[in-house]
Amino acid sequence: MAQLVARIRGTDEVASSTLAESTRGYRIVVIIFDFQSNDGGSTPPTRSMFYLYILLLKNGNLYKGTTSDIKRRIKEHRSKKVSSTKSKQPLKLIHCEIYSLKSDAQRREKFLKTTEGRRLLRQQLKNVLKKYSILGSPGHSTGRPVE
Q1: What percent of the chain is helix, strand and coil (3-state, nearest 5)?
Q2: With the CA atoms of 77, 32, 35 and 8 taken in that order, what torsion angle do they form, in degrees rounded to the nearest 10?
């Protein structure tokens, strides 16, 4: 087995063209996965990648979703083609995880929508949420801005 390390910026065309524009100043995600190449060498086989992404919405909520084409999906959100986010513009891509299996990305999304997952996610993204004054805003127990 060989190991491949991919960085969200710089090495992946989709990531560099989509995420670099949206994530300036955010953390760099490092993805490590094992693969068995078809030719016995160190070249990874061609396969789809699946993305779990998190958007910060205008109202302070976090939108969690999965896709196999992050560039297309973010464009759909920004052009208001997604009903659950079209009235909550502008939005910011604040986090992205990459999985080699669709089921893993969907399982992670499902977990992050639970109470425990939300708590873990808020802790994990604490600094990003503070930067946008979402976490710890005075006057609201959930940390969302008071309107």
Answers
A1: 30, 20, 45
A2: 40
Structural domain spans, the chain = 2-131
SS3 28: coil
Radius of gyration over every alpha carbon of the chain, rounded to an integer in angstroms? 17
Strands (E), 1-147: 2-7, 30-35, 50-56, 62-67, 92-99
**Residue 55, SS3?**
strand
Q: Tally the C-alpha atoms within 13 A of residue 78's C-alpha that lie toward its C-beta.
A: 10
Angstrom distance (rounded) from CA 138 to CA 143: 7
Average pLDDT over residues 17-31: 42
3-state SS assignment for residue 58: coil
50 and 104 in contact (C-beta within 8 Å)?
Answer: yes
Contacts of 141 (CB under 8 A, 6+ apart): none
Task: Let me know: does 26 contact 94? Beta carbons within 8 Å.
Answer: yes
Which residues contact residue 143 at a Cβ distance below 8 angstroms, ignoring those fewer than 6 apart? 60, 122, 129, 134, 135, 136, 137
Residue of 52, 62, 53 whose CA lies nearest to 129: 62
pLDDT digits (tens, 9 = 90+) for 27-75: 444 444 444 445 555 555 556 899 999 999 999 899 999 999 999 999 9
